[in-house]
Amino acid sequence: MTRCKSPGHVPNGQNLEYYRxxxxxxxxxxxxxxxxxxxxxANGYPDVPAFHGDxxxxxxxxxxxxxxxxxxxxxPQLWHVGSVxxxxxxxxxxxxxxxxxxVLHPTLPSGAEAPEPLSESGIADIIEAFARAAAAADSLGxxxxxxxxxxxxxxxxxxxxxxNCRTDAYGGDYRQRTRFAVEVxxxxxxxxxxxxxxxxxxxxxSLGDYALCLVETPAELERWLAPLIDAGVDVLHPSTRRFxxxxxxxxxxxxxxxxxxxxxxxxxxxxxxxxxADFIAAFDGAPARAIDIGGVLERLEQxxxxxxxxxxxxxxxxxxxxxxxxxxxxEIMNFAPAHLTQYP
Length: 344
What we know:
Elements: H1 13-24, E1 29-36, H2 54-69, E2 73-79, E3 98-99, E4 116-117, H3 120-140, E5 145-151, H4 154-159, H5 179-191, E6 198-206, H6 218-230, E7 235-239, H7 255-263, E8 268-269, H8 294-301, E9 307-308, H9 312-316, H10 320-325
Parallel strand pairs: 1-2, 2-5, 3-4, 5-6, 6-7, 8-9
Helix pairs in contact: 1-2, 3-5, 6-7
């Protein structure tokens, strides 16, 4: 949940209390907000935290220690926004966005600045930046790392035919377009302990293009995921807007369910869990009421997912897990758009 609450891109005491409070409220594993790797074009938003530099890493170390003191685990989500970035953005306003191809991101208006297509040496620099960040997470005492390959950011831009028009080894069919992600994962795996969990977040859809579909069938999904698993992924985080939606025509299985069935890897189920509206509505100012979560628990019990991931519901109520466990459902707070920016 991007907070834009880290001036100078350094996690501070307010950030620490935010994560500590949710660990205290009963969360078992915290995946941090997107935190940028050490590349000039990695960031696209104001005041998001970085995962590089002495000050930022010291802040993250303190956060990890605070979360552990409450009995929870924590992993950072490593992030490069790619073509979302425009010149004028922090930390260096002179740096424009970059991408596999000079294709305008769908969230940007026509006439906006096109991203700079990455050279092979530029790709190598970003791969190394992800690897350095993962190594830092390992050394700081985090419990694993998540690579953000979803939602139309840089790794997803390599996955999608719309944004990857390359004719070199990083382009081609849907499987060839995994090469950048594969090399990121391989580099990360080489730089961390063998038993350090590596999670990959992926999605079919992109910000600004919710109808985007990277693969059309379970067979294509299996073929697409295979090189990513071979590169060292331990856990899959298939991001959907509504956790219970069927992934493909002809089967009730969700994207999480198919990912687990096809790979055998643990999966995280996510998407409007505990709420009556998906997260896109929040950007239109719509509140979401807390609802019964029997559907997600049923899928958990049936083995479609191994973890249940909560976003906005935890922004609204940091005690959401504790209240749920205690049967205090009527006390769970409803989500409102203000929770996207305020700290409970």
